[in-house]
Each structure stands twice: as structure tokens, then as C-alpha cells.
Amino acid sequence: MVIDDFDWNNQKSSECAPMASGSSEESQRHNRAGTFCGSLEISQHRKGAACRAAQAHLPLYQALHPSKTTHGNIHGSNPTRPCINHNNIEAQPSSQDWKKEPSSMSHPCTSADVSHVTHEPPSYDAVQQDRQVQNFDAKEWESVPKNLVIVYSPVPIGAGANVSRKGISWEARLRVKSKDLPRLMREGFHWTVANIHREAGYIEHQAKEPAMVGAGWNCTRNYYLSDLSPDQNWTAKLTVCARDIWVLSQFDVAKLRTEQAYAAVAWTNVQPSQYIYNFDCLDPRKNYNAIYDNMPLEGWWPWPKKQPDAGDKS
After folding, report:
1. For the segment 174-201, what is each residue's pLDDT rounded down to a tens digit?
2. Residues in a beta bridge with 242
3. 3-state SS of the chain?
4. Which of 58, 132, 199, 302 is the most exposed place for a label (fewest CB within 10 A)?
5. What does R_g of the chain's alpha carbons equal in angstroms?
């Protein structure tokens, strides 16, 4: 029984009861005082037990309500309210100490966690972003027209039965946009599979261009290529035509050869009718370079090529 619940009715009854014979008024006052003090002692004892119980639950309370505890006072920020006799208990860890201990309710951030977050490797998309964006259809290349086309096939097309593509499983057309085509002739047209934007490639199950459909091709596989030099001079699209998807799935750009080119044509950036280069493997009399004549061209230019010296036996 706490002091607020003191039984004042019993106390009043004892005060109104007649005094026993031989008892003095002072004696009764001592008795009443003793009763009151005894009740107060019991109340203080119970209060101390309650405080000790609260102290036993203090760590859990601090963990759950760190903002509501101040130096072990579970009653909040009121320092005058009696709580715990710190002289009779062992020192409890501070709220900072509890924060350092692992808890089943939260996972502490360790040095390993911090290292994992700050040193996480870049994502695949971040690394490959520059390889996903092809230039051929990009806005900055819209003003550069296509000015070179090279056509490849396993065997030359244009004579006899080959005109109808009978016996030929595929045909490839390389369309090039060059900002400076004469420069591409002087420096050579060089590219490998490293110039291909792999992430931009796709297959069409139905060929759309009339020229391809008219030649009997049903489907296409498309690759995008770009100049890798800092001052990009060209970008290109390689379209491989076939009758079956299986042929396209097995096509390997790395196995394409310059010798497989059977026709090529180039024109100025001013008018498509102003031709500056032509190559026909079946009719060499039609070959010409209107800019550099017979100057050998390097790389994927099919003609003219540097002829080996007569005395060179290599």
C-alpha cells in the first residue's frame, strides 16, 4: 500500500475510540504515530521493490525508447521524481553502450557493411552504357548522309544463277555514314568486332526493305558499328539477309572477309547521284576512284589493293 492509498478510515476510528483505562493521551499519540510510521515504512519498502523491478527492466526500456531515457531515469526528463538508489545497485551501461551492442531488433552497421556500400563495383549498365548507344540513327548523325555501301556474300552475285541468289545462304550490306569520305580513303577503312555495339543489335523475322524482299530474303540480322577514334569520322550499319533464322543465329561477323565483297559504291555528301567510287568484282572495267584514282586503299575498301612486289616471295 503506497502512501496515497493510506487507510484513513481505520485511522479515524482509532482516533474516535475511547481511551483504555490507565492510558494517557500521550501514549495514544505515540501509538498513532507508530501506526503511521509503520505504514509509511511498508509503503517505502514496496516502492523500493517497484523501483528495483523497474531498474531490472531499464536496459530493455532504454533499447526500445532511447529518446525517453536520461541517465537511467525511466520517468523521462523529470530529475526530481524519485526512482533508483544508485548507491545500492551496480553501475548500468549508458545509452551509448547499449547502442554498441548487437540487438535482435536491429542490425548494427559494421565496417564490413560500410565497405560493401562505398566500394560496390559499378553496375553492368553503367559500364556498358557507351556501348549500348549506337551512332547510326543518333540525332547528332542525322545531318550526315549515307555515302558508302559495300555488299558481301559467300560467292559473287551477278552472273548466271547467282542473280537469283540460288545456292547462297546469306548476303550482307554495310551502309556507312562518313563525315569525310576522302579522309576515310586516305587513312583506310579499318574495323573489327570491337567496333560493334553488341547491345544495339537485333533480328527482324520479316525483312522490310523492298530490295531485300525482292531478292528472296525473308529475315535480317542487324549490327551497328562506330569509329572508336576520339574524332569519330564514320558510323555504319551491317544488315545480314537470309531465308532462315537459323542462318542468322549462326552468322559470325568475325569470319567476314574483305575478299567476300562483290560490289561497292560511294557518292558525295551533296548529291547521291555524284558518284566518287565504284567496285564490281565481276566487271573490273567498271571500277573507279574519282578522287584518288589507283591509289591503294587499306582496310575494308575492296579495291584497289596494294600489289606485292615482283621480287617479294613472301
Report:
1. 999 999 999 999 999 999 999 999 999 9
2. 170, 219
3. CCHHHCCHHHHHHHHHCCCCCCCCHHHHHHHHHHHHHHHHHHHHHHHHHHHHHHHHCHHHHHHHCHHHCECCECCCCCCCCCCCCCCCCCCCCCHHHHHHCCECCECCCCHHHHHHHHCCCCCHHHHHHHHHCCCCCCHHHCCCCEEEEEEECCCCCCCHHHHHCCCCCEEEEEEEEECCHHHHHHHCECCCHHHECHHHCEEECCCCCHHHHHCCCCEEEEEEEECCCCCCCEEEEEEEEECCHHHHHCCCHHHCCHHHEEEEEEECCCCCCCEEEEEECCCHHHCEECCCCCCCCCECCCCCCCCCCCCCCC
4. 132
5. 48
Long-range CB pairs of 95-100, under 8 A, 24+ apart, other chains included: 95/62, 95/66, 95/69, 98/59, 98/62, 98/63, 98/66, 99/66
Q: Which residues pair with 103 in a beta bridge?
A: 106
Q: Would you state the cell numbers that stand for residue 24, as one nine-digit string? A: 494517557
Closest CA to 236 of 298, 151, 177: 177
**Extents of the domains making up the chain:** 3-99, 133-289
Question: Could you tell me the strand order of the sheet in which 146-152 lies?
Answer: 202-204, 219-226, 234-242, 170-178, 146-152, 261-267, 275-280, 288-289
